[in-house]
């Protein structure tokens, strides 16, 4: 599909303006406006059904066209009617063309009705937002740790590892999630008895020696408290791809629109080295 056709499809949706209340959803394609006082503009991507509601990807750009924030807005009903059972579910999400200068290609949203292992720490139902630096569909189709153990065992060069992060302990072949990647965890975020309850966290992901996703995640229980959390995204000394990278992430409830917002923002341009 050509760029002009994609932009034409975006002409029927409602507009989000930075600093103003977002309008309700109207159709499946986004539009744009520049009504914020500082000239920032928020552009919606195609909506995706989720639970009894839907999610709306977006990107915010400044008056020079540089991306400053991107994320996903969930209508409140999206947290109801989610699939149950043992197996997780996933949905693919595409961002507007204006997100092109970021390192994010698209996103995979994953719902874990039984949480993750170990259950005593992470068993609360949760939803994860994988912002992929490669195509998420490619990840689903090609990441096979047991079929490609050499790639699974190829970890990130230390200069590409965010400060305080470590690969999930254990054999990388076993710990790499097929169709997703290996998770890297902040060693300073500990949960469990005598420690904070697991509510939200930020994770990095890799495969075959490359950083392939940035992942804020939160439990459904925590989202229902209508939180307002913004925290730094810890940075590596160097990056592997040119583009705009987030330096913080946000998980919050937007009262005027009755939506939950999960975003990565305060983006800065970095060059591969």
Q: Quickly give the structural class.
A: mainly beta
**Helical amount among residues, as a percent range?**
10-25%
Average predicted confidence as pLDDT: 88
Q: What number of domains?
A: 1
How do the helices and strands follow one another from N- to C-terminus? HEEEEEEHEHHEHEEEHEEEEE
List the uncertain runs: 1-31
Largest sheet entry: 7 strands, antiparallel
Q: What global shape is seen?
A: globular
State the helix count. Answer: 6
**Percentage of β-strand residues:** 25-35%
Number of strands: 16
Radius of gyration: 18 Å
Distance between the termini: 33 Å
Architecture overview:
By secondary structure, the protein is mainly beta. It has one domain. It has 6 helices and 16 strands.
Please tag this protein with its features:
273 residues; mainly beta; globular; 7-stranded antiparallel sheet; single chain; 6 helices; 35% strand; disordered N terminus
């Amino acid at each position: 599909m050509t760029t002009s056709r994609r932009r034409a499809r975006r002409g029927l949706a409602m507009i989000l303006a930075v600093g103003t209340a977002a309008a309700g959803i109207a159709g499946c394609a986004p539009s744009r406006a520049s009504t914020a006082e500082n000239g920032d503009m928020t552009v919606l991507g195609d909506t995706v059904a989720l639970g009894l509601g839907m999610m709306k990807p977006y990107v915010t750009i400044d008056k020079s066209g540089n991306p400053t924030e991107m994320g996903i807005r969930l209508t409140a009903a999206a947290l109801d009617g989610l699939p149950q059972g043992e197996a997780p579910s996933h949905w693919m999400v595409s961002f507007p063309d204006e997100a092109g200068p970021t390192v994010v290609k698209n996103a995979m949203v994953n719902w874990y009705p039984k949480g993750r292992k170990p259950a005593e720490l992470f068993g609360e139902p949760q939803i994860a937002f994988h912002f992929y630096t490669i195509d998420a569909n490619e990840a689903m189709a090609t990441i096979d740790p047991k079929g490609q153990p050499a790639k699974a065992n190829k970890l990130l060069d230390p200069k590409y590892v965010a400060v305080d992060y470590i690969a999930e302990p254990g054999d990388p072949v076993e710990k790499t999630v097929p169709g997703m990647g290996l998770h890297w965890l902040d060693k300073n975020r500990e949960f469990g008895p005598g420690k904070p309850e697991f509510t939200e966290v930020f994770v990095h992901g890799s495969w075959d020696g490359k950083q392939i996703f940035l992942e804020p995640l939160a439990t459904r229980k925590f989202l229902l408290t209508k939180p307002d959390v913004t925290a730094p995204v810890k940075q590596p000394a160097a990056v592997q791809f040119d583009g705009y990278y987030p330096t913080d992430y946000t998980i919050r409830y937007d009262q005027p629109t009755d939506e939950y917002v999960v975003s990565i923002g305060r983006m800065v341009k970095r060059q591969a080295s």
